[in-house]
């Protein structure tokens, strides 16, 4: 286990999250004299989400540790979340002795088989001599190709064993950075050069690849507008003149949908064409041509077949596209199409300046945008508040907007924000949550208070299961948390007080800004999480809007040539 800990340190791990138990104590003993800080969480799922947040904001491999049995099964949701969003993470579980595994020993479960569908690799250490090599391979697999999670299961008798290990002779295994095929790069440049209304679509892969600079260089070199997916928010600054918004059926802007509908060639980089982005495929594809760039070959053609596929790491591929265009003397596109996108942006806006009581959700995000700076890191999970966030919240830098995009586990944002703050203690961190999601893993607030991990929680509270309630299920259901001993739902202010953390409830739109300022000051003063609970109208519906084909053009689309 000393060798395993040395490998983790050399791979850049300085913080791990977990809960000790009898079957994992040898690993914990080995960490005692290391430089790795351990955050003891209250639930293993919370530990996985904290490691997930730490990984998303650092770009390195997050680590979560637990004992045998239910510790591993509690990690499954976090493993699935990391796999769905391509997040490199390693979960380490303890296990009963090898000789006892077939005898139904206490807390002995075949976690490797359970975890296989939600990991890139799940492995049980069979011999002590494998330890440094299995851990090295785990870090390599987690970061190679399309990143994702790995599970390592450690029988306790193997943990107690000895192996030969010299850290002076060891180093991380190389991570392949695949280069694109030059002929395909040339073909992509030809398609973009011949387009009338080209768009670049930046997915989460651009952020994972740290390719935001290369993306911006290509867009500016060709004067091509850039859209982002939900996972790609931050890959391109939203105040850039070439920003073209976000298309989709939920997390989108009206003007982003319209710009997409008017495009004729789309260069998608590191995007998986998720169904909440595409909606109906026949409308999404239309008559436009697609160039799909992805590091994972099997992603190309999985949802629909593009006109051109390019396998490659986003960073060298974007650089190669820029270099090829310059070497061929491809002229930047004219200003007509970018001006059209700018016109859409200024015309097809949603209101966010409401003064209504109860508070309308768009006003909440207007206040967030105006109060917090560009370097603030936001963490949000799933539901109506994620949809509103995607529609209204502004993002300017990569790894500053973290969202569990595909799996969407409620409760993700509190532990994930904790992981972000552990990675960057000096950075301002804000978790935007709903009332239901807050209650899923609110025990992790105790952890943040215990370890003095300060961040602000902005709760958008409509007091009932808003997204599902608006789906109009064909049977009656008690959606609200109406308590028998009082009026209304749970008193979150009192809950926070029980954890030793400040909280304030806001019911007037004019009080939001002052509450955010107060929360920032209290979090810094006390080094604990601080809650601002904003009561919004129950019936606000942002989820079930029209699909792409229902958006009507508000003025004729101009005829363009590539020279325009």
From TrEMBL:
Documented EC number(s): 4.1.1.47
SUPFAM superfamilies noted in UniProt: DHS-like NAD/FAD-binding domain, Thiamin diphosphate-binding fold (THDP-binding)
Keywords per UniProt: Lyase, Thiamine pyrophosphate
Gene3D superfamilies linked: 3.40.50.970, TPP-binding domain (3.40.50.1220)
GO molecular function annotation: tartronate-semialdehyde synthase activity
Residue ranges of domain Thiamine pyrophosphate enzyme N-terminal TPP-binding in the record: 2-113
Domain of life: Bacteria
Enzyme class: lyase
Membership in a protein family: Belongs to the TPP enzyme family.
Protein name: Glyoxylate carboligase
Organism encoding this protein: Actinophytocola glycyrrhizae
Gene name of the record: gcl
């Amino acid at each position: 286990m000393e060798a395993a800990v040395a490998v983790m340190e050399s791979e850049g791990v300085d913080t791990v999250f977990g809960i000790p138990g009898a079957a994992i104590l040898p690993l914990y003993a080995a960490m005692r004299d290391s430089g790795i800080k351990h955050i003891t969480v209250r639930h293993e799922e919370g530990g996985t989400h904290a490691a997930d947040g730490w990984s998303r904001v650092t770009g390195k491999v997050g680590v979560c540790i637990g004992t045998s049995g239910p510790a591993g099964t509690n990690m499954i949701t976090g493993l699935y979340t990391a796999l769905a969003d391509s997040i490199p993470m390693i979960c380490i579980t303890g296990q009963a002795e090898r000789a006892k595994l077939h005898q139904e020993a206490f807390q002995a479960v075949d976690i490797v088989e359970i975890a296989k569908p939600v990991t890139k690799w799940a492995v049980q250490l069979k011999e002590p001599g494998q330890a440094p090599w299995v851990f090295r391979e785990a870090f390599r697999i987690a970061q190679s190709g399309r990143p994702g999670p790995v599970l390592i299961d450690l029988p306790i008798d193997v943990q107690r064993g000895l192996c030969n290990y010299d850290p002076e002779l060891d180093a991380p295994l190389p991570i392949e950075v695949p280069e694109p095929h030059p002929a395909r790069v040339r073909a992509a440049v030809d398609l973009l050069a011949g387009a009338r209304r080209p768009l670049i679509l930046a997915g989460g892969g651009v952020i994972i690849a740290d390719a935001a600079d290369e993306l911006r260089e290509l867009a500016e070199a060709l004067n091509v507008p850039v859209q982002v997916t939900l996972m790609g928010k931050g890959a391109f600054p939203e105040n850039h003149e070439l920003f073209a918004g976000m298309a989709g059926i939920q997390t989108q802007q009206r003007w982003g949908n319209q710009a997409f509908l008017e495009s004729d060639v789309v260069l998608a980089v590191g995007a998986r064409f998720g169904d909440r982005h595409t909606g109906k495929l026949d409308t999404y594809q239309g008559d436009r041509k697609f160039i799909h760039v992805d590091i994972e070959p099997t992603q190309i053609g999985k949802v629909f077949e593009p006109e051109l596929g390019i396998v490659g790491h986003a960073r060298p591929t974007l650089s190669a596209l820029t270099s090829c265009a310059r070497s061929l003397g491809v002229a930047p596109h004219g200003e007509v199409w970018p001006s059209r996108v700018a016109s859409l942006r200024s015309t097809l806006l949603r209101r966010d300046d409401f003064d209504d009581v109860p508070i309308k959700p768009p006003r909440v995000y207007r206040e967030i945008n105006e109060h917090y700076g560009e370097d603030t890191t936001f963490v949000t999970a799933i539901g109506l508040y994620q949809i509103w966030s995607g529609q209204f919240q502004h993002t300017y830098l990569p790894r500053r907007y973290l969202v569990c995009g595909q799996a969407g586990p409620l409760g993700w944002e509190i532990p994930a924000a904790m992981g972000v703050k552990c990675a960057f203690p000096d950075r301002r961190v804000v978790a935007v949550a709903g009332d239901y999601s807050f209650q899923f893993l609110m025990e992790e607030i105790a952890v943040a208070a215990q370890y003095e991990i300060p961040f602000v929680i902005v709760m958008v509270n409509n007091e009932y299961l808003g997204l599902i309630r608006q789906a109009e299920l064909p049977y009656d259901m008690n959606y609200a948390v109406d308590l028998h001993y009082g009026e209304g739902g749970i008193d979150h202010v009192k809950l926070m007080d029980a954890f030793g953390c400040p909280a304030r409830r806001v019911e007037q739109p004019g009080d939001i800004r002052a509450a955010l300022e107060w929360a920032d000051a209290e979090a810094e003063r006390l080094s604990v999480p601080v809650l601002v609970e904003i009561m919004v109208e129950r019936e606000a519906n942002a989820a079930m809007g029209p699909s792409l084909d229902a958006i009507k053009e508000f003025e004729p689309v101009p005829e363009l040539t590539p020279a325009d």
